[in-house]
Design goal:
It is a single chain. The chain is about 40% helix and about 15% strand. The chain has helices at about 15-25, 35-40, 40-45, 65-75, 90-95, 95-120, 150-170, 195-205, 225-235, 255-265, 295-300, 310-320, and strands spanning about 5-10, 30-35, 55-60, 80-85, 125-130, 175-180, 185, 210-215, 220, 225, 245, 255, 275. The structure holds NADP nicotinamide-adenine-dinucleotide phosphate and guanosine-5'-diphosphate-alpha-D-mannose.
Length: about 325
């Protein structure tokens, strides 16, 4: 039997790289959309795919160009499409609302429209986000919780979620959205707070830095591991009917708790190294995210396993290892 064909947008990102590996292991023929520059500079821009890039089929296209997306869909004719590409950094979305809204909303729309025209039977996954809940009126948040996004990023994800549902209802396409809460890993981008902290810990241990400057330490997030979260995306597309699912751990921790644990894992006291920086506070903050993934557990059989403490340890150890320093050694 021929291998099933999957197309991943955002394959060079944290989630895209884990999902590509997972689908290859499941025997899929895996295609990915990348920006042209990624093919010109593979060493840097495909670094998360190193080790298995040779088994992937990569296609240059841009989220901003319907024509380029149409071309890839026509060529690949995917059976499953995982739409992960996005301007995903909330802070940056305050600096450039226009490009965030353009890339994230149009990108999703272009992809759905191309699939409708060329591969209507393809199953579609949209990377929704707990940022859609934003200033949530209840905790924990589930699939019925009202959206109140607090950034243009959150707004773009609500629009993508609505587009996805509309294609499901209007054209009977198998379109599902995952409402994923924060998920991290050693492959997380350095701009996100967890990786900023763990890479900061490693740099301090290596004598390359003296502090980590952080914004709001009180914000609380429901942090899971990306490697596990991508398997929930796949499970959604294996269901007979499309639907929307919250994916979360059901535990929440503050940024301060994350820092405390990360530094203590390296034998350090975070209070000696974390410097508050008011410039890093956001114009509108999401204070508390806590997800209820009971629907995913009941319908998809998905449940998180990697605990917060183990996630933090894995990230600190990976960053320390990359700089050639131990994590749990006494400092000095
Ligand atoms: P990420 O590491 O920032 O990866 C984003 C990907 O999107 C990269 O491959 C990036 O390509 C691509 N991309 C960005 N702008 C693009 C454009 N204009 N054209 C083409 N490609 C573009 O994000 P992630 O953490 O893997 O997250 C994956 C998706 O899930 C995103 O949609 C994110 O918003 C969403 N999400 C993430 C989380 C989380 O906690 N990680 C939670 C909920 C939802 P380059 O490598 O070329 O920049
Ligand atoms: N990035 C960053 N840098 N965040 C900081 C800092 C800092 O120096 N100091 C405090 N924070 C706080 C932010 O204000 C926020 O409350 C929290 O740390 C988490 O910030 P990020 O790690 O940047 O993630 P995020 O929660 O804004 O967004 C991530 O998760 C969403 C799902 O809830 C991204 O992955 C989004 O793409 C994703 O949709």
């Amino acid at each position: 039997m021929d291998a099933r064909r999957a197309l991943i947008t955002g394959i060079t990102g944290q989630d895209g790289s884990y999902l590509a590996e997972y689908l290859l292991d499941e025997g899929y023929e895996v295609h990915g959309i990348v920006r042209r520059v990624a093919l010109e500079d593979p060493e840097h821009r495909l670094s998360r795919l190193s080790g298995f890039a040779g088994r992937l089929h990569l296609h240059a296209a841009s989220l901003e160009s319907y024509a380029s997306i149409h071309q890839v869909i026509e060529k690949v004719h995917p059976e499953e499409c995982y739409h992960l590409a996005a301007q995903s950094f909330v802070s940056y979305s305050f600096d450039d609302e226009f490009s965030t809204l353009n890339a994230n909303i149009n990108g999703t729309h272009f992809l759905l429209a191309a699939l409708k025209n060329l591969a209507r039977d393809c199953r579609f996954y949209f990377a929704g986000s707990s940022e859609m809940f934003g200033h949530a009126e209840e905790a924990p948040q589930n699939e019925k919780t009202r959206f109140h996004p607090r950034s243009s990023y959150g707004i773009s994800k609500v629009a993508g979620f609505d587009l996805t549902r509309n294609y499901r209802e209007a054209y009977q396409m198998h379109c599902s959205s995952g409402i994923l809460f924060n998920h991290e890993s050693p492959r997380r981008g350095y701009e996100f707070v967890t990786r900023k902290i763990t890479s900061g810990v490693a740099r301090i241990r290596a004598g390359k830095s003296k502090e980590v400057r952080l914004g709001n330490l009180e914000a609380k997030r429901d942090w899971g591991h990306a490697r596990e979260y991508v398997t929930a995306m796949w499970r959604m597309l294996q269901q007979p009917e499309p639907d929307d699912y919250v994916i979360a751990t059901g535990e929440t921790h503050s940024v301060q708790e994350f820092a405390e644990l990360a530094f203590s894992h390296a034998g350090l006291d975070y209070r000696d190294y974390v410097s508050p920086d008011p410039a890093l506070h956001r114009p509108a903050e999401v204070n508390l995210l806590l997800g209820d993934a009971s629907k995913a557990k009941a319908k998809l059989g998905w449940q998180f396993k990697i605990r917060f403490e183990d996630l933090v340890r894995e990230m600190v150890e990976a960053d320390c290892r990359a700089l050639g320093v131990g994590s749990a050694l006494p400092f000095g």
